[in-house]
Design brief:
The complex is a heterodimer of chains A (about 425) and B (about 300).
Chain A lengths: L1 H22 L1 E7 L9 H15 L3 E7 L2 H13 L6 E5 L5 H5 L12 H6 L9 E2 L2 E2 L2 E2 L3 E8 H6 L8 H13 L14 H14 L1 H9 L6 H15 L12 H10 L5 E5 L3 H4 L10 E4 L15 E5 L2 E5 L6 H22 L18 H11 L3 E3 L2 H4 L2 H16 L4 H7 L3
Parallel strand pairs in A: 1-2, 1-3, 10-12
Antiparallel strand pairs in A: 3-11, 4-5, 6-11, 7-8, 7-9, 7-10
Chain B lengths: L1 H5 L1 H29 L2 E3 L5 E3 L3 H7 L6 H33 L3 H13 L2 H11 L6 H8 L13 H29 L3 H9 L4 H12 L1 H17 L2 H6 L11 H10 L4 H25 L8
Antiparallel strand pairs in B: 1-2
Helix pairs in contact in B: 2-14, 3-14, 4-5, 4-8, 4-11, 5-8, 11-14, 13-14
Chain lengths: ~425, ~300
């Protein structure tokens, strides 16, 4: 009899737990920022998440993060297998297109009320809009700039480069003093594309480049000229000897942060670590535009900027908590944009109630001024090209960097 | 117990769970992959049947370095067979002959086999580091500064640098196979050889090695097939780089399917790897046939 009572009580307990467990909503989130050492967004996201949790104490949020180059195949595989989390970081343009086409990503238009839509800045959702529908909320405007260590330039008595030829000379000067001129680690295969693509846009102009890359038909003298310029940098000794095997997110960037390398041309997603208290570069960075090339037929200018709004939070179409997930994404994305602006990670894609003097980051203050004059924004071609072409592009540009392909051979591999 | 072992139904029943698992996890995916290799498919959307076109692209009009990767895996197979196995054999023979600390050394040599591959590879990546790695530090320390180089970042040194840890890790595994086989040989053989005055070399080469032929065959198959299928070490240490210098078929297949979204074409590569392993297994089985048949 005692046993029977125990069993019945246990059954009720179990049912009770199961029933109450249903009441709590769980949202699974994946993002690409495992820690703050090389990803500024880590801090912004967590600040936004704290705000969300305060307003929604009943919601359980499970966060999982993986570093950049391991995250890409992870999210792609998860989406293919219908095992994607409710909310996830992803890249727009051709990266997510196959999944949008296969119905794996939720369209957000039904949830976008007029008030929220009015907060979005124009043009920031272009790469997340497919067939006129919105599939992602923009996480920020990431742009690339030439970050220079003032102290190192002064130490060797060098002036900031005004033209690309100046840049090559400065590179040679640093190299002759035994200093590695550029901080670059190309194990991920894509870090070098920022330099190449910036050069290509300077020669052909943003409009031509964007139109050609998005249609996967690249044919313009600019591609060869830019490839030759990359070779000039390589021959001038711009990069460390083991550049092909070093990760950008580890030593590639670390040496700049430690004040050993004077120049770093990369996106704004690494700014926060550069200004951290433990960074040797804190307060010593001057942000420059990539210098213009000397070519009378060049259609671009120094005001053409690499970057744009190409990363977002998306919601899985198979999410069991779709409405809650969308509301989470809407709230957190907005908050993250705000904190990113204050902290210096990137510029916001929303009208955030932050005045420029609230911006803590010294780098971001400089970036705001520089961006004011920017005439165009071109995002990474690895996102605009069809994925197969994108992978081959990254493989081949790495071979150009490593000297396995001549500029002419490299241009021959571009999709036409 | 005897009755149970003889009872055919009992045998079938006990074998069934493992058989089902084996069919589902090993055999079925081979057929599924073979089917996928006849499609043009991105893994997410619609698929199109294209027959053997993937194989035509793979063999006739190859542009993604597949044959270089096959060559690389062949080089690894060669290194395994001609360096790793003889080394394992030497250690096994020495230990089985009887040395002080036989038990201890047996465990020590086997240790790398049980350590996680990821741990070993991460360790070696640090060892090879240009600025603070153990290897370059050692070279600089003994006055060979010019030999210190970025081992994993240069195409000409990357392949051998990746293969070294692999060869190192599995010597203990093959050693244990040979050691076990040697220990199962009757003691009288060795006693009579010793009485006749045979040396270590003579006993090993004339008596021991020929008698453990069957185990050598097994170990050869594992070494060769393992080399063709290699993935972990390359993926972790170099991801097939720099500039595809360390690419092996399985890393290329992985990239083709999961980064380029070419599921059908990638499946074609996997079918090739399967057939390659199968053929070499047959080849080794035939080549080292023992007179009494299989062991």
């Amino acid at each position: 009899m005692k046993k029977l009572i125990l069993v019945v009580l246990f059954v009720f307990l179990a049912l009770g737990i199961a029933w109450s467990a249903d009441k709590k909503v769980t949202i699974n989130v994946w993002h690409i920022w495992p820690d703050a050492s090389s990803e500024a967004s880590y801090v912004d996201f967590n600040q936004a998440l704290t705000d969300y949790k305060k307003l929604n104490p009943n919601v359980e949020v499970n966060v999982d993060s993986t570093t950049n180059d391991l995250y890409k195949p992870k999210i792609q595989t998860a989406l293919s297998a219908d095992e994607a989390p409710d909310v996830f970081f992803t890249f727009g343009s051709a990266f997510s297109k196959p999944f949008v086409d296969a119905g794996k990503i939720a369209a957000l238009d039904p949830y976008m009320d007029a008030a929220y839509k009015s907060k979005l800045l124009a043009g920031t959702t272009a790469f997340f809009t497919y067939d006129g529908k919105l599939y992602g909320l923009p996480l920020g405007m990431h742009t690339a700039w030439l970050y220079c260590n003032r102290d190192l330039f002064q130490k060797y008595g060098l002036k900031y480069p005004k033209t690309f030829d100046d840049l090559v000379n400065v590179t040679k000067a640093f190299k002759s003093k035994g200093v590695v001129p550029f901080a670059l680690g190309n194990k991920e295969r894509w870090p070098i594309i920022l330099l190449y693509e910036t050069l290509a846009v300077k020669y052909a102009g943003a409009k031509t480049i964007q139109q050609q890359v998005q249609s996967n038909k690249l044919s313009d003298p600019a591609y060869l000229k830019a490839a030759r310029d990359i070779k000039r940098l390589v021959d001038a000794g711009a990069f460390r000897p083991d550049v092909l095997g070093v990760s950008m997110f580890a030593e590639g960037f670390q040496v700049f942060k430690d004040g050993q390398v004077p120049m770093f041309y990369h996106g704004s997603w690494m700014t926060l670590p550069m200004e951290a208290d433990d960074a040797a570069t804190k307060g010593k960075i001057d942000v420059l535009r990539w210098p213009m090339v000397t070519d009378s037929s060049a259609k671009g200018s120094e005001f053409d900027t690499w970057g744009g709004s190409f990363s977002c939070f998306s919601v899985s179409a198979k999410s069991k908590v779709l409405k809650d997930a969308v509301e989470f994404a809407k709230y957190v994305t907005f908050q993250q944009n705000k904190y990113a602006f204050i902290n210096g990670t990137n510029l916001p894609c929303y009208r955030v109630d932050v005045t420029p003097d609230q911006v803590k980051s010294d780098i971001n203050k400089q970036v705001i001024k520089l961006m004011d004059k920017s005439t165009s924004f071109t995002i990474g071609w690895d996102l605009m090209l069809e994925q197969k072409n994108a992978q081959e592009y990254m493989d081949n540009i790495t071979k150009l960097l490593g000297g396995a392909l001549t500029p002419e051979q490299f241009v021959a591999t571009l999709p036409k | 117990m005897e009755k149970l072992l003889r009872n055919k139904t009992a045998i079938a029943l006990f074998v069934l769970p493992a058989l089902v698992l084996y069919l589902a996890i090993v055999i079925l995916p081979i057929f599924v992959s073979s089917w996928y290799s006849l499609l043009k498919w991105d893994g997410v959307g619609k698929s199109f049947f294209i027959g053997i076109e993937n194989f035509v692209a793979l063999f006739a009009r190859n542009t993604d370095g597949f044959w270089t990767s096959v060559k690389n895996s062949g080089i690894l197979a060669g290194l395994s067979v001609f360096i790793q196995l003889p080394l394992a054999m030497l250690i096994a023979l020495t230990l089985a002959w009887g040395v002080r600390g036989e038990q201890f050394f047996r465990k020590v040599y086997f240790l790398p086999v049980v350590i996680s591959t990821v741990v070993i590879c991460q360790l070696w990546v640090q060892v090879y580091n240009l600025d603070y790695g153990l290897l370059n530090g050692l070279l600089r320390g003994i006055g060979l500064k010019s030999w210190a180089q970025p081992w994993l970042s240069q195409p000409r040194t990357a392949l051998m640098s990746v293969f070294l840890p692999i060869v190192w890790q599995y010597v203990g595994y093959h050693m244990l196979l040979y050691y076990t086989a040697i220990k199962s040989l009757p003691d009288e053989l060795f006693d009579s050889a010793r009485i006749d005055g045979a040396s270590f070399a003579q006993t090993s080469l004339r008596i021991t090695v020929p008698l453990i032929r069957a185990m050598i065959r097994v170990s050869l198959i594992f070494a060769i097939v393992g080399s063709f299928k290699l993935f972990d070490h390359v993926y972790i240490m170099t991801y097939g780089g720099p500039m595809q210098a360390t690419e092996v078929p399985s890393t290329l297949m992985y990239k083709t399917i999961f980064r380029k979204y070419a599921y059908g074409y990638g499946s074609g590569m996997s079918v090739f790897i399967i057939l390659e392993c199968f053929l070499f297994t047959l080849f080794v089985q035939r080549g080292l046939r023992t007179k009494e048949g299989d062991l």
